[in-house]
Input
Amino acid sequence: MFNYILTLCFLLICTQASAQIDFLDSLGSQIEEAITKDSIDRAEEAAENADGEQTEDEEAAAETTPEAVRDNLTDAIGKATDIISPAKILTIIIASLFVWLTTKGTNWMYRSLADSFNRRRLQILRLQPITNVILWVITIYVLVVTLFDPTRQSLLALMGSSALALGFAAQDIVKNIFGGLLIIFDRPFQVGDRINIGGNYGEVVRIGIRNTNINTLDDSIVTIPNSKIISEHISNANSGALDCMVVVDLWLPVGIDVEKVRKIAFEAAITSRYLNIDKAVTVLFFDHFDNQPATNVKIKAYVLDARYEKGFAGDVTEAAKKALSEAGIYETIQ
Amino acid sequence: MDFKNIFYKIVDFVMHYGKMTYEFLFLDEKEEQSTVEEVQERAEIPEAYLQRFRLHPLQDAKQLEGRDEEIAMMQRGYENWKITRSPLLIVGEFGAGMTSLLNASSAIYPHARILENKINISNDEELVSELKNGLNYPEARTLKDLETLPKNDGEQVIIFENIERLFLRKIHGFHLLEDFLLLIHATKKDIFWVATINQYSYYYLNQVINFGANFLSVIRLQPIKKDIIEGIIQERNKGYECVYLKPGTSSGTLSQQLKNSDASAKQQLLKEDFFNKLHAFAGGNISQAMLFWKRSLAYVKEKRVYIKAYEPKPIGQLTLEELFVLEAILQHTSLSNNELYSILRNSNKGSKLILEKLMENDLLYAKTYEGSFEPEYQINLLHLNAVKAQIHERLNRNIL
Output
């Protein structure tokens, strides 16, 4: 919806700016014409009437110039009314509404396709923001060109005035928009990736023009402005792949039977339903002597889909703890 | 990226939802009535005729068709063993005719003993009890005893069917399989071991414990050629004339061609269309081909069989839990509820409920084997392809 409002604002600025420019153009040319006409008349009269009838002519010229200005003013206002006619405004509204609905439709289509072709889910979803940007750019371009047919000068003037207006009034929005474009085309992450930004970890569910939405592990949607994202460090867990590595930590007493624990930890991972069996499972041991001596067992494995990351970690931890307990590993602490 | 596959998937997707919408909008009473009539007609098919297409392993090597290459490879495997002393592994799809192949192997291994395993072996005692009979060493009490087997005069060939029955996907569920592999390695000098495994168990075990590395020779059963499958069906249909009926859904081209053809040309067209559908469904799997034929029988009148191509019902979108259950069953060939419960680490009642739902949807069937106290759940071959497709797509498993 924001895109829709933004487009409308942009097009209305175009309309007003075009009207002003045309009005100024026309006013300028009329004044120029009047001045030129006046100079020529005066020169001719000076040549013809050297006897000093200048005062009468000056008065006549003074009488014709305000009329010309009035006529020109009327003419320019008429042109401006043509430019910001209700028909054009209605066209802009309908076209923008149509494109907004189309983007909603394409977003739905991408979501449905992603559900049906899970293995290609991420490739499909990454097309979504690109399509939206392309649709809006084409719409704005077509509307400006067909409705206002701006000249080069007016286009430059329009850009200048728009930049000035946006620079003062909406610099944060502009920053976000440029941030959004950078994310879409530079692709530090894509829809479906698991990223950590500013302490918010979760799945990217939407990359918008202004901000990006992340679905965190506790199922909250966090909205982060794109300007903030481009200035932050981002860690990406799967970088466009469906699977991602999960590290499961187990804390055990230092004097454990390493061989027995390794077997249990390894089997806990390879028997998990969430495991990506095409990638290797690693079990590592680290001893810590900070506060209380303990052995940290790290089980590194890939989960079949990044969405099941926590499911996998929970499943492996639960199974390993149960088996370790049955094997009497925890009893060695006492 | 396989664009052709993606294109076909998109077409399927559009067709599927188009059909659903059509059915939702236009399915009327008339169509439901015709389904009922079809069921009544199916009931009229004589049992004697159905028996011809019963799924059972062949006992005689002469009856086995389309497996010449595999038999030759088994022969080569035996020759290799004489030099390398390496065991042989045969990998196959459900219903691909593994047991028939093993029965037929008696031609190349006349003294072979086949140890058939229909249910999971859960402990050392059960395994030792099975092996000591097969190895003719009744005194053995442990697997260690079997490793020190007294030498026989001649060479021994032991065929261990369904080696996947030795593991259960749970913590401590692999030790029996590992012990058995150690036994194979300890005795391979004197015994030519041939083990068989289903392709899903092989894929899983290979990835997680590098199972395939224990076998120097691995034979993968290939799909049976189309003409051989057609020949087998014609052979079993001997004495009956086939009349092919227009399928429930047919392409516009076929309908057009049928309009412009005479009776015999129509039959030829319908026959071609039928067998195209049969091969697309079975993909070279003889059991699936037989099931397709049986499901396509409209009715039998005197010595004339009326055939209308079977159209598999879409199984719909399965839930993640259901897919995990089906995957576990594929990896173990069949599972009881208790085994499933220990594999999925969920509640006993929870796994039972999922099993019941899958049974209701005809995706599984239960069978109680001799020596087993509870039923074993197996995948219905009619829906195997659809189940595999969903596991591949949704669980990202490379099993197609």
In short: Residues 3-26 of chain B form the longest helix (24 residues).
